[in-house]
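Homework-ish question, so no full write-ups if that breaks the rules, but can someone show me the predicted structure for this set?
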Amino acid sequence: DVKVTQSSRYLVKRTGEKVFLECVQDMDHENMFWYRQDPGLGLRLIYFSYDVKMKEKGDIPEGYSVSREKKERFSLILESASTNQTSMYLCASSFVIQASFNYGYTFGSGTRLTVV
Amino acid sequence: GQQVMQIPQYQHVQEGEDFTTYCNSSTTLSNIQWYKQRPGGHPVFLIQLVKSGEVKKQKRLTFQFGEAKKNSSLHITATQTTDVGTYFCAQTTSGTYKYIFGTGTRLKVLA
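A: Not a homework solution, just the prediction itself:
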């Protein structure tokens, strides 16, 4: 079974703190993604990476950065946490998706971050 | 950015009734995926549709891709309490790795 593991299930941080969210996958997937999920807004893409050291901005990258030094690990960094970054953060990974194969993203269990 | 409209936002049905959620795009899509998220869980991949007019079935679930590849639907026949959750479509246009998710349809099944 493909596994995507997020380091923390729940996290409480103070405003202004630097926050690291870690994600590790064990299936040699090329692509990795960070989404945040908020009620009524669905899943919004923050950043994604299609190779080691490669990254691209998603739809809401402001206030976030990422790091991918190894293929299996993709970290999301909140440089200076703010209360509007309180959310559920979901990491996902996938192979390069091809039309001929019926597979999609594999998600981690999520990290519920509260910034106080 | 790319808009992904999913309707309805919420649906309550009696167990045994049918349920349909719709996903619409402002642009022509390369393919579309559907995911299910149980309460307290994370999204789980259900299926990918690629061809214009494609219809795929998984037991009581029927997935359809529009002829113009701008819309899709998920239909559940005779809902069960195990169908409870939020159903998301995810869309991509050609040449991109990233998928844009719809806002989801939250299904509640009343026993």
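Now go work out the reasoning yourself. Hint: The mean pLDDT of chain B is 92.
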